[in-house]
Task: structure prediction
Amino acid sequence: MISEAADRRLNTISRHLIVTNEDEGSNGVISSSITSSGGDSVFANVVRAPEDPILGVTVAYNKDPSPVKLNLGVGAYRTEEGKPLVLNVVRKAEMLLVNDRSRVKEYLPIVGLADFNKLSAQLILGADSPAIRDNRVTTVQCLSGTGSLRVGGEFLAKHYYQRTIYIPNPTWGNHTKIFALAGLSVKTYRYYDPVTRGLNIQGLLEDLGSAPSGSIVLLHACAHNPTGVDPTVEQWEQIRRLIRSKKLLPFFDSAYQGFASGSLDGDAQSVRMFVGDGGECFIAQSYAKNMGLYGERVGALSIVCGSADVASRVESQLKLVIRPMYSNPPIHGPSIVATILKDRNLYNEWTLELKAMADRIITMRKQLFDALRARGTPGDWSHIIKQIGMFTFTGLNTKQVNFMTKEYHIYMTSDGRISMAGLSSRTVPHLADAIHAAVTTVV
Ligand SMILES: Cc1ncc(COP(=O)(O)O)c(C=O)c1O
Result:
């Protein structure tokens, strides 16, 4: 039995913990077996967590009754009509799977579907990759890009001598949490220059140049999120030379292969440069955007190792990471991907649909740029057409974003990032009006 005085003391301590935690801005989940007096749940002390900064935008959007509301927060492709898109080729693959009576729903192995793993490694590294030929690559199916990053992070925290990962500033909001919770220490390197709205290559090279030898470096393979700013081939080469000379470990996040340029090979170029030099690296792949398989959670983690023997030992340890986490991955999504990747006709059809999505996004960039020019909106908006991939990092500040949400019902993340994939010819004028009003009335 806890005495009343002890009970009061413990409640004070747990309240203090909650306040401290809120001050630090963390999610604030405090586990305690003690309820505050009068509470009717053992969880009475659980603090309400803030909404996810990206997914929370959609929550706010859904609550808005305005007929002109526009969600440019979440990175999901929409058609010209503003509707989610299921690729035709995905529907075809699903029909083939449904009609195949020999298919069963047994558990997959811990590492996932073998065909899917092999084809995924080929997609990102190239079918003729020497690393694949030499069996130096181990690939495991994971829960989309996020799960692949997490499994890679957990493996590194357990088996790699350096526990620090450098991520770009800024980066996709989930990176910090994924790697910190995996047990790595997260630091940032300079990436974006707000003045030029381009790459801060000098800052990047300086920061990676002073990182301790062996540090892990997270690189966006293409279509950097949120900035839409990618290094040029020459800059990639500079980064590669530095990373190799400092013996840093590259960890590629490839969430947009095919989305940046419309070419699967073109968007894999950065990764292939690093694998081409014979060095080791990690690659997290997602099929959320490029096959529109968002909710199916299909992805892969590939680890390119120095030898076939190391690769097979690494794989044996990856199984020990995965087994207690989710046992084994789902079967439907990777079956769709494997069906498409191994059939030449379906593969070709996919590349066309992918290119059409990429092209529509590029058209939206052009239309928005033209609309701002037509309105005489103050500022240089050429970054809208220079940036690459799903997002434009507009340069709008939080106050301007809040203004656009309040007055124009346009939803985006507070850093001014907009998803170009959520725009259409119909909605561009509304967005351009809102941006014009924001920059001319809100400082
Ligand atoms: C840079 C980056 N990495 C990884 C992901 C992971 O996405 P998913 O887990 O849906 O594949 C995203 C999604 O927005 C992203 O933008």
Q: What stands out?
A: The two ends are 60 Å apart (CA to CA). The domain at 107-342 is CATH 3.40.640.10 (Aspartate Aminotransferase; domain 2). The chain has three domains: 1-50, 55-86+358-441, 107-342.
